[in-house]
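Contributing new records

If you add data, match the layout below exactly. Sequence lines come first and carry their own label; structure lines follow with theirs. Keep one chain per record. Anything else will be rejected by the validation script.
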Amino acid sequence: MLGKHWQAQLATLAILTIKSAASLSVLTSLKAFAITPPSHSVVLISQCTSTRIKSYIQQLSQEDKAESAFSELVKCNSSSVPELIKALKNKDRHVKIVTIATLGSIGSNAVSAIPSLNQTSKDKDKDVRAAALDALAKIRNPIKDSVPTLIAALKNQDANARLRAAKGLERVGTPVAIPALKQALRDKYASVRSSAATALGNIGTPAKDAVPELIALIDDEKREVRDSAIFALGEIGIEAKQAIPVLLGKTASSSIFDYSFAFNILDKICENQVFRCISQYLEDGDTYVQSGAILFLGEFRKQKESDTIERDFIVEQLISIIQNYSDVEIRYQAIKSLEKVLNRNELYNLYSLVPSLYKLKESTESEVYGMSIEGVSKGFPNTRKLWKDNIRVRKKPIICKIPVLNNFFSSQCR
């Protein structure tokens, strides 16, 4: 899927280079063969002689033969590479760009072209430079000859070149690139920041020095950047634990965070002990962080319903908050999370066994109901959403039609 995206990009470059010299038909052909990679089927040796390959390269500038020539060169695979390297010196920018695209399509078998492509990435033509960076990223050489070029390109004045360099480093995933990628996190273009963050995530734990910069991107104005930064923090793992309170606070205070996504990231950082990890922040002095921790505890049934030991631990934590916290909004949030963790029968049994807990539930809900939207919203992150939930609850749900439940849920049914 990613390969098609890059080929589509190169197709656009190729089309722009020849629009003044070729007819519409050849433009369409170039786009078609760049987007749809030809099959690497077995080709007879007689078709891949040096003479034939040279002929195919000459045909790249001919509108009626360009598509088939590109296809044959890719099918010849590594046999084409020596002549394609020579073709990189062609003065025709169209031939040069399509030659580069051909090397990129051959992939790892074009590893011997890396030094030449490194040189081509410094071409005075920005489209040629961008195409070369693309090809270097596709070849994905295990000895990483392309990495210095990609790192240097992160400082290129051309945003397109910086983006391709960052995309290339996404695939390579080498710690050598960490300092340059940290700098790229401050790039003025969101797509570059996003790719740099993803590249750091692909590097994993060795990128731990970038955690402060990645945490800063959680507030980025662009969703793609925020998501890439959060992804990277998850891949770095326990070394990114300083991001936990930030993620909890942002989840509680903002509607732009997806619970499932944030939960999975926190689970990675907490090394699959997410609920016990989160519970450490129930005593945090920041209301947003406390609220975020309580909200995540309420997500237990969606994530790990079968783990009864973990559930009992969460229920104990939530009951403790309801019984001991003076902040009404925090108590209210704990009540709502408890109602998510336990089913109706379990709640009924709990409140029957601990009547004082039920009285606290009633008094807390009554206090929240009695507050104005403006008053509550000054101190509690999710007040407006909670207030709307309260309005819906007070419309008397269907449980109120059943006498025994009507009495039990009197605060909702009166």
